[in-house]
Amino acid sequence: MDQNVFDVVVVGAGFAGLSAARNCQSAGRSVLVLEARDRVGGKAERQFDAEGRAWDGGGQFFCRDMTELSELVRELGFAKARTWLKGDYRFYPPQPDEVVEAADTAAEALRERLRTLDPDDPALGNETVETWLSRWESTTLGKAAFRSMVEGLWCRPLSDIPLWFLVSNDRRNTNEENELKRFLPEGMQALAEALAARLGEGVIRLGDPVAEIRQTASDCTLTLQSGSTVRARQVIIAVPPVAARGIALTPAPSPGLARALSAWSSGSVVKMLLRYERPFWRALGASGMITAPGSGSFSCDASLEGQEEGRLIVFLGGPLAEEWAACSEEARRALVLERLTPLGPQAAHPLDITARNWIDDRYSGGGYGDVITDAEARDAERLLRTGEGRLRFASSELSMAFPCYIEGALLSGRAAAALTLSALAADDVRR
Ligand SMILES: Cc1cc2nc3c(=O)[nH]c(=O)nc-3n(C[C@H](O)[C@H](O)[C@H](O)COP(=O)(O)OP(=O)(O)OC[C@H]3O[C@@H](n4cnc5c(N)ncnc54)[C@H](O)[C@@H]3O)c2cc1C
């Protein structure tokens, strides 16, 4: 065999790519990972507050039902922190407890109704979540809380999301424990770095995006932005679908695969850290969790044990994230602090605010993941999971469990590796 040809080249060193690389390498195959950024981790990204201390600007939380990730955390020897979830859950604008409870129950009932639908039922047609919601009886606040949940988690307006897609996606999130339950004090990027280190030196090349993948009868040639080339028998494109569209494929993909790639739009999300002298909300009986019925904002308490300061994480998703991005600095601050008024007047005085805007992120698309917005593209996920010729796709979006979570990325990488290893085995026999 040509020594200059890798068995597998993985494009992208997010958790999907690292997982794919690890699984191929464990099977004894030669692997190279090509990463556009100058770091690994993808949407698991270290950010720094005003005092230079690290926080998770992207993927952060997990729970024990996310078994692949939990096992990785254990294997790589990372300490876990528990998210503070005690105390009341509040609404913005503030509402009496019984109103919050009733709206929550109504929103949960809508979600349960959604979960009884069969995503493959042709009767769902091209209906969007928006029109579906308009057809159901519920309280105004219940519907608003449901909208907040969907826009906050899928980060697109309801009118963009095909009903069948939401049904299919939501039923794959099977956790019983709260998904916010745990996080890593060292941060998720550190976990990705530790996983990358296990691959060995020289296995990952950073800072040079793949621009083109050319398939021939015998192998693939990948051309990087710098102009250098790499050859591989099999390629795993471990890049979210929207970002994957930025890689030229030669010959052009089949019309089915091209359509599958173009079916997705990126979610819009902004994540923020607000630091306070102390987590004052705890003494008021509040958990720090606030949702704003009608729009996608959510906050929670991720203060570190043993440290005095309070750390509130705020997420803005969907149209609200876009609104924030279009504002001046001052208006952005006002928009966020306004949503924390249910915690009382002290919420208006954070020590500092740092934000990570993921809208149209160059290499990850957006967050929490890409969403299918072409209602007719029902087989887009399947076509991408299968791949074509010597190409396979991996990314959290394509996972059969926990799509758009780190757990999903790990599982998707494993699944793409399994297909790649089978293709290599078949190829070995032919040679
Ligand atoms: C704000 C935010 C908060 C989140 N919170 C959570 C959370 O609390 N818990 C959770 O489980 N999940 C969370 N997620 C989702 C989670 O981070 C992602 O699902 C997961 O990290 C995706 O991994 P991935 O490998 O599929 O994709 P990515 O992480 O996007 O990795 C893709 C990689 O491919 C690289 N790439 C792109 N184009 C090219 C190219 N042309 N050539 C080479 N490399 C390329 C990118 O640079 C990137 O490193 C969050 C996401 C965001 C944005």
Automatic annotation (TrEMBL):
* SUPFAM superfamilies registered for this protein in UniProt: FAD-linked reductases, C-terminal domain, FAD/NAD(P)-binding domain
Domain Amine oxidase intervals? 15-418
Query: What are the protein's UniProt keywords?
Result: Oxidoreductase
What's the cofactor? FAD
Keyword Isomerase part of the UniProt annotation = no
Residues that, per the record, bind FAD: E35, A36, V210, E397
Which InterPro entries did the record assign? Amino_oxidase (IPR002937), FAD/NAD-bd_sf (IPR036188), Flavin_amine_oxidase (IPR001613), Flavin_MAO (IPR050703)
Give a yes or no for keyword Oxidoreductase in this entry.
yes
Give the highest taxon in the source lineage: Bacteria
Task: Report the GO molecular function annotations.
Answer: oxidoreductase activity
Residues engaged in binding substrate = F315
**Protein family (similarity comment):** Belongs to the flavin monoamine oxidase family.
Q: What is this protein called?
A: Amine oxidase domain-containing protein
The lineage is: Bacteria, Pseudomonadati, Pseudomonadota, Alphaproteobacteria, Hyphomicrobiales
